[in-house]
Known about the structure:
homodimer, mainly alpha, Arc Repressor Mutant, subunit A, 68% helix, elongated
Amino acid sequence: MATNKxxxxxxxxxxxxTEQILQGAMQEFxxxxxAGTSMDKVAKTGGVSKATVxxxxxxxxxxxxxxxxxxxxxKFVYFEAVPxxxxxxxxxxxxxxxxxxxxxxxxxxxxxLRLVIAExxxxxxxxxxxxxxxxxxxxxxxxxxxxxxxxxxxxDPEATARIFIGSLVYFQLTxxxxxxxxxxxxxxxxxxxxxxxxxxxx
Amino acid sequence: MATNKxxxxxxxxxxxxTEQILQGAMQEFxxxxxAGTSMDKVAKTGGVSKATVxxxxxxxxxxxxxxxxxxxxxKFVYFEAVPxxxxxxxxxxxxxxxxxxxxxxxxxxxxxLRLVIAExxxxxxxxxxxxxxxxxxxxxxxxxxxxxxxxxxxxDPEATARIFIGSLVYFQLTxxxxxxxxxxxxxxxxxxxxxxxxxxxx
DNA sequence: GTCTATATTTAGATAGAC
DNA sequence: GTCTATCTAAATATAGAC
Lengths: 202, 202
């Protein structure tokens, strides 16, 4: 009796214990960090027993590693590629807006970044997976776009790409993650304008 | 019998229990994070008993809060003010170099930033203290320097200051904190050159 | 003021029933 | 395969001796 596998490929299928566990793990680890998360809570949030968690994952570290790898591999993307035919003023503003809006569209993204940074001492490989799967493709995409526009007269497109993305990430870090909005207020568009002015005045 | 108070002002004086506890707390919290640190280890590392820790600080949260406040208030500084008479190419390179070298000079600084980010969800006030005491003065100092040099023709000095510092912090975040050196290699001076080229080509 | 010893809770992990 | 019940270790916090 061949069951319909297509249905089970839906990663949110309720019957899939692995998914339930990872969902519970995501909620708990993202909220409380590695050491602050208990396997009891993971099991309860996932709607399974703790023994079931341990039958699917070797231990807490294994579960955490599996979760982070999965989130870095599947769930989050900095931004998609921009066609090189788009003119720079439009393309760069689009990229910047996309990155800064990411927090709204994917509410867990900033929390995920926080988690990876928080555990980058204890789990350096996981931080490296984040860099490899998210940071690197983002930098490379933007570098390639910048390099394909010689009229910008950028002496070092890759350095420029890092400056561009770094400014945006730091902005989110300071304003949202570290709750600096009221202490160090600045409109999102003001930062973007400043960035574009620096890059476009060739 | 008046004892010599001057000696006790040395914050590493062995007899001062408060200092011993904070030293132990610093080492443990910086290494293992909030939830990953036990009061037993803090006491042992500080060379006192656990009961003594609880006689000086109300509980784990109080100790953690006191430690972070202290580190943000006293121990770390982004960079000192640069005289406005220094010419931009020199001054900006000096500021950039200072910030990037900070990790070497103050080996705990990156770890402290990691800790504050890690706990910025549970302890938002502590993240705000960090922003108020470290981020804000840094941005403001650089903004003032940039604003005092109209020959740079910067339409928005504060946005530029954020771009400048953001690029540098993101660089350290990616290369060092998240162990991305080998995955996304770039020389420190290449980023600085790229930054200066963007800002100085007026 | 400072310590040792301990009460109490909670955590990671597993044995054994079904 | 999944659950309940439990073992063992470790953590927060405090009582009581000195």
